Amino acid sequence: MAAEQERDLTAAAGRLSDHPRGGPTILRIILGTQLRRLRESLSISREAAGDAIRGSHAKISRLELGRVGCKQRDVEDLLTFYGVRDAATREQYLALARQAGTPGWWQKYSDVMSPWFDRLIGLEEAASVIRMYEVQFVPGLLQTPEYAHAVIRLGHPRADEREIERRVELRTQRQSILERGRGPKLWTVVDEAALRRPPGDPKVLRDQIRHLLEVTTQTDVTVQIAPFRLGGLAAAGGPVTILRFTEPDLPDIVYLEQLTSSLYLDKREEVESYMAVMDRLCATAEPPGRTAQFLERLLSELP
C-alpha cells in the first residue's frame, strides 16, 4: 500500500472519528472512496474484486459509492486481496466499517421513511452548505409542524394520524441541524407560488410565513423569494437540492426528489450544470435583504 494512500486513510479516519456530523452515511462514502482508490492503484477490476468477496462487480460499485454498508468480512477479504498486511492499517479500515454500520438516529423512523430518503438525511447531517430551490412548498427544513402536517397529509392521503405524526416528527428532527453548533449553512430560493398556495387552513400558511420571517434573522439561514414577475425560471422544472461538504473525499451532490423515487447526482458535469442553474436563480430572485419586506407584504395580503 502506497504511503500516500495510508496517510489519506489515517487523515480521513482522524477527521471523522470525532466529527460531529460524521454519521454512518458519510462514513460509508469515505470508506468506499478509500477502497476504490486502493483497488484502482493496483489496476484491479471491479469484477476481480467482486470475485474476491464472492460477489459481483455491481456489489463492489455499491460499496465504493457508499450506497450500502460494508461487512467486516468483505473489508477484510478485500484488504487481503489488495495486499494490505499492516495490522494498524487494516484496523483503520475495519474501524471505519464498524462505525459505518452503526444505525443513524433516523433509522427509528424506517417504518414511515421512503427507502431512498435515509441517504439524504445522512448527507444533510454532514453538509457544510445546503442550497435549495422549492417550487410548490416551503422547504422541509424550514416548515412549522402544522405546515408539515398539512403537506404530509396531501402527499399521503390514505395514511392514518399516527403515521402522519411520525412523519412530522421525523421532519422536525431533521431541522435540528440548523440549531446546533457547526451545522450547515442553508441558502434557499422559494417560489412565490409556494407562499401563496395554502396546503390547508390559511392560518397554517400565515404562521408558516411568520416562521420564515423569524429564520431570516439567523446568520446561517438565507431565504430568497422568486416572485411571479420573473416569469420562467431555469430550474429543471422542479425542486433542487445541492449539498456541499468540507470533507475532501465527498463530492458535491445534487438531490432531485420525485413522486415515488429520487436521484442523487455526483458526477462533476451534472453537478456543475445544476450549480449554474442555482446561481442563476439566486441572481434573478429577490435579494436576501428584501425577503423580510416581501414576506411582510405577503402577510398583509393573505386572508
Structure write-up:
- There is one protein chain.
- With 303 residues, the protein is an alpha/beta fold.
- It has two domains: 3-102, 434 Repressor (Amino-terminal Domain) (Orthogonal Bundle), CATH 1.10.260.40; 106-301, Endonuclease, Chain A (2-Layer Sandwich).
- It is built from 13 helices and six strands.
- It has helices at 3-17, 24-41, 46-52, 57-64, 72-81, 87-100, 117-126, 145-155, 161-174, 192-196, 202-215, 268-284, 291-301; strands spanning 129-134, 185-191, 221-226, 240-244, 253-257, 262-265.
- A six-stranded mixed sheet has the order 3-2-1-4-5-6, sandwiched between helices.
- Helix 3 (46-52) packs across helix 4, helix 5 packs antiparallel against helix 6 (87-100) and helix 11 (202-215) packs antiparallel against helix 13.
What are the low-pLDDT stretches, counting only 5+ consecutive residues below 50? 16-20
Radius of gyration, taken over Cα atoms and rounded to an integer in Å: 22 Å
Largest sheet: 6 strands, mixed
How many β strands by DSSP? Answer: 6
Order of helices and strands: HHHHHHHEHHEHHEEEEHH
Show the helix and strand layout.
Blueprint: H1 3-17, H2 24-41, H3 46-52, H4 57-64, H5 72-81, H6 87-100, H7 117-126, E1 129-134, H8 145-155, H9 161-174, E2 185-191, H10 192-196, H11 202-215, E3 221-226, E4 240-244, E5 253-257, E6 262-265, H12 268-284, H13 291-301
Parallel strand pairs: 1-2, 2-3
Antiparallel strand pairs: 1-4, 4-5, 5-6
Helix pairs in contact: 1-2, 1-6, 2-6, 3-4, 5-6, 8-9, 11-13
